[in-house]
Give the backbone structure.
Amino acid sequence: MHIAIAGNIGSGKTTLTKMLVKRYGWQPRFEPVDVNPYLSDFYADMSRWSFNLQIYFLNKRFRDIVEISKSSDTIIQDRTIFEDARIFAPNLHDQGYMSDRDFANYSDLFDLMMSLVGFPDLMIYIRSSIPNLISQIEKRGRDYEQTIRIDYLTGLNKRYEDWISTYKGNLIIVDGDTIKFESNPQDFKKVTDMIDAQLYGLFS
């Protein structure tokens, strides 16, 4: 089974992934952030490195999906290939950080990849306001994230909402502003109750 967690930068995807791995014994696939060779360059010069960064993510994410499709384990994925192509790349293109030529090339590659794979068995979307995202980003203190522009985060948030409103697969929406799953055990149980109901048709 393939479980995926989606959400903007700082929404709590990795934290929730780790908590669900511990709760259910699922196998994790984490977002390749700390070893990403493009990320710090990208935040320093987004126009120069946007295409390189998005191709790197697309490659890693597609590799994960291929491996997941061949596995008999239940695997939970921290961020999805859909977010790369439906949110991050179009946002960079619209804000002038990715050229028309590069975006067309990227989009063609994504469409080819998606012709070979399907939806996850369950998508968990963590919805979060901009103030909450900024608070979370500041709290975790990654140097390269301290230069993220608020208008960049805002553009991403709008695209997340547009994408989720048309998503066709099985979906759970977690309100990251009010459901503090990281610090409140009862809030975490609210999340796992939703998951159990969706996957198994009952509450644990």
Remarks:
- The two ends are 19 Å apart (CA to CA).
